[in-house]
């Protein structure tokens, strides 16, 4: 699977969102073997560059040093600047934008064991 695939789907969601809406996104660095200190330095630099380019500062951020990743809560415009940086290997939304609906039952009634393992058919 190409590395850009997750970023393309996220970019579609970012362009659909209002620039004032706050989103949480988890970013993974391309080099997963980056050490803890280097991960913190890269994340700090990327956040500073994206803030300067977008004109928006992140509301919250947290660096997962040993996982070579970080999470950022910021306006969509901030994320649009950050997602295309060369150091980013993957990016995924931290939260769903719409609530999940429960799965509706196919039939209503007591459960039956017919057709399950252990019964010869």
Structure, explained:
It is elongated and about 60 Å long. The model is unreliable at 1-5 (pLDDT under 50). The protein contains three helices and four strands, in the order αβαββαβ. A hairpin with a 4-residue loop joins strand 2 (60-64) and strand 3 (69-75). It has a four-stranded antiparallel sheet with strand order 2-3-1-4. It is an alpha+beta fold and 121 residues long. Helix 2 crosses helix 3 (76-82). The longest helix is centred in the middle third of the chain and has 19 residues, at 36-54. It has helices spanning 4-16, 36-54, 76-82; strands at 22-29, 60-64, 69-75, 88-93.
Unreliable residue runs: 1-5
Distance between the termini: 40 Å
Cα Rg: 20 Å
Give me the side-by-side strand order of the main sheet: 2-3-1-4
Main beta sheet, described? 4 strands, antiparallel
So what's the overall shape? elongated
Strand content bin: 15-25%
The average pLDDT value, as a whole number, equals 81
Derived from helix and strand composition plus strand pairing, the structural class reads alpha+beta
- The portion of residues assigned to helices is 25-40%
Individual helix count: 3
SSE series: HEHEEHE
Tags for this entry?
single chain, 121 residues, alpha+beta, four-stranded antiparallel β-sheet, 3 helices, 4 strands
In brief:
The chain is of the alpha+beta class and 121 residues long.
List the helices and strands and how they pair.
Blueprint: H1 4-16, E1 22-29, H2 36-54, E2 60-64, E3 69-75, H3 76-82, E4 88-93
Antiparallel strand pairs: 1-3, 1-4, 2-3
Helix pairs in contact: 2-3
């Amino acid at each position: 699977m190409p590395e850009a695939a997750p970023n393309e789907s996220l970019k579609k969601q970012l362009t659909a969102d209002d620039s004032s809406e706050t989103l949480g996104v988890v970013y993974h660095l391309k080099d997963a073997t980056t050490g803890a200190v280097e991960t913190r330095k890269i994340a700090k630099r990327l956040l500073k560059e994206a803030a300067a380019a977008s004109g928006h500062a992140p509301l919250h951020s947290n660096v997962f040093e040993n996982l070579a990743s970080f999470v950022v809560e910021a306006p969509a415009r901030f994320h649009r600047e950050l997602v295309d940086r060369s150091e980013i290997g993957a990016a995924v939304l931290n939260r769903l934008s719409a609530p999940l609906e429960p799965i509706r039952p196919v039939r209503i009634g007591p459960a039956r064991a017919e057709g399950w393992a252990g019964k010869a058919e």
